[in-house]
Amino acid sequence: MTTAGSDTLVRVRGLRFGFGPRTIYDGVDIDIARGKVTAILGPSGTGKTTLLRLIGGQWRPTGGTIEFDGVDVHQQSRKKLFALRKRMGVLFQSGALLTDLTVFENVAFPLREHARLPEAMIRDLVLMKLEAVGLRGAAALYPEQISGGMSRRVALARAIALEPDMVMYDEPFTGQDPISMGVLIRLIRGLNAALGLTSVIVSHDVAEVLSISDHVYIVSGGKVLDHGTPESIRNSTSPLVRQFLHGEPDGPVPFHYKAAASYATDLLGA
Amino acid sequence: MKNLRLIVSNFLRGLGEATLFLFSIFGAVPAALLRPRLIAQQLYSVGVLSLIIIAISGSFIGVVLALQGYRTLSSFGAASSLGVLVALAIVRELGPVVTALLFAGRAGSALAAEIGLMKATDQLSGMEMMAVDPLRRVVAPRFIAGIIAMPLLASIFTMMAIGVAGGHAVGVELLNVDAGSYWAQIHNAMHGRDIRDMLIKSTVFGVAVSWIAVYQGFHAAPTSQGVSRATTSTVVISSLAILALDVVLTAFMFR
């Protein structure tokens, strides 16, 4: 069964992926519901950003399938894949703004590349997107002249410039001050509703993500540990989920990285 | 022996990857040619911004060549041939080769660092996810601009070295070689073939340096060390490639 026309926009089935001998995903199933905010939570290094790159077709899984609106992302020609990507916006953790362009030109970039629109219309569209993220006044500034939080808002304006079906957020709250974080939370939720988007947030900021998500997946060790509504995740009995949610330093995810020899052997010699 | 085999196999693998990358760039060139504004921006960056170093270096080399040449030629009573010595040495060899070496150090390293940093800061990934091909938008315009800029810069280097502030300034103005002899002997000794060969050499060097620079930048590890290594490799590999290609081209041109 495909996902076209169904409530599921992205369907991940039996996903397998790794870097050399290191397994990142080992048979993962995830459904991203259309029109909802879905969060992928997990400790650092579990491959959350990797998942976004796999969904976007930048990397190819070693097994399993990823369908976007019923289309297998990894069975497309480059041209068709690019057509699919126009329907996905990505907000990278770094913002990934083009540093030689102003804020205005960054937001105008996808419009100039893909839409043959008159300059006046591009100007209006860009100013509307910048107004939506509260940065119309920063249109003439360059990326190095704005803060990290503002960069992410510009990147968000750029991600929605082509009015995609889905926006993927890569660690949107990392390194943000409380005000910027509050602004981003409001924007993600607000834009999702106002533009009829589907949102995917990968993050390890538990409280913020649980406050705006409709559905949450917890991934670790190449598997989905648990998934459900934020409420059901909060009440999860899984020791690993509880350790992650409460930030306990030791537990199923050990404090110590596995060493080849014992502590005593390392200190005293064999 | 084992290390040697590893070095050779790594070299061949790198050469193979770079060749495949070159074919990908060729595939992206037609689309880039439809956007002359992007190419013009890069021409400014790699060409216009290299002008000062090229012009000054051309003058210095012309001056040194004239001083050294005058000393030798005057001992044979052939000081009036100074123009020929300077012109042929510059047009046939030093013009294209030194320009290319300077171009690799100034523009090649800048290209590699810029593309490498774009990769390290996810700008290239961001473009891909916006359905914009970085090869067409970033790599091909820089590659084309490098190829266009090199023969132009080599011509400017040559003019500066032979005339303006180089050989002419020293030979005619300082050492009192007759200006008529200086230019007339150049006119008689130099052929259109020499100019053509200079342009061919500098174009080939332009392809080599631009190819190496964009390849190193595009395949740089996305770390500060990776970008640094890509920049250094661009200058080192380009310099060796320029000198090796010069040997091959000169051998063919003198047949």
What does the model show?
The complex is a heterodimer of chains A (270) and B (255). With 270 residues, chain A is an alpha/beta fold. Chain A has a domain of 127 residues: Rossmann fold (3-Layer(aba) Sandwich), CATH 3.40.50. Helices cover 36% and strands 24% of the residues of chain A. The model of chain B has no long low-confidence stretch (mean pLDDT 92). With 255 residues, chain B is mainly α. Chain B has one domain. Chain B starts with a helix and ends with a helix. Chain B contains 10 helices and no strands. Chains A and B meet through helix 2, strand 6 and helix 3 of A and helix 5 of B.
Instruction: Provide the number of structural domains of chain B.
Output: 1
Gap between N and C termini of chain A: 59 Å
At the fourth CATH level, what is the homologous superfamily of the domain at 1-84 and 199-241 in chain A? P-loop containing nucleotide triphosphate hydrolases
- The number of distinct helices of chain B, counting runs of at least 4 residues, comes to 10
CA-atom Rg of chain B in angstroms: 21 Å
Mean pLDDT of chain A: 88
Order of helix and strand elements from N to C terminus of chain B? HHHHHHHHHH
> What overall form of chain A do the CA principal axes indicate?
globular
Relative strand content of chain B: under 5%
Summarize, please.
Chain A has 270 residues and is α/β, with parallel strands linked by helices.
Please describe the structure with a list of short key phrases separated by commas or semicolons:
heterodimer; A: 270 residues; alpha/beta; Rossmann fold; six-stranded mixed beta sheet; four-stranded antiparallel beta sheet; 10 strands; 36% helix; 24% strand; globular; B: 255 residues; mainly alpha; 10 helices
Can you lay out the helices and strands and say which pair or pack?
The complex is a heterodimer of chains A (270) and B (255).
Chain A: E1 8-19, E2 22-33, E3 37-41, H1 48-55, E4 63-68, E5 71-72, H2 78-85, E6 88-91, H3 103-114, H4 119-132, H5 148-159, E7 166-170, H6 178-194, E8 198-203, H7 206-212, E9 215-220, E10 223-228, H8 230-234, H9 239-246, H10 263-268
Chain B: H1 2-33, H2 36-46, H3 51-75, H4 82-120, H5 123-129, H6 134-162, H7 167-174, H8 179-189, H9 192-218, H10 224-253
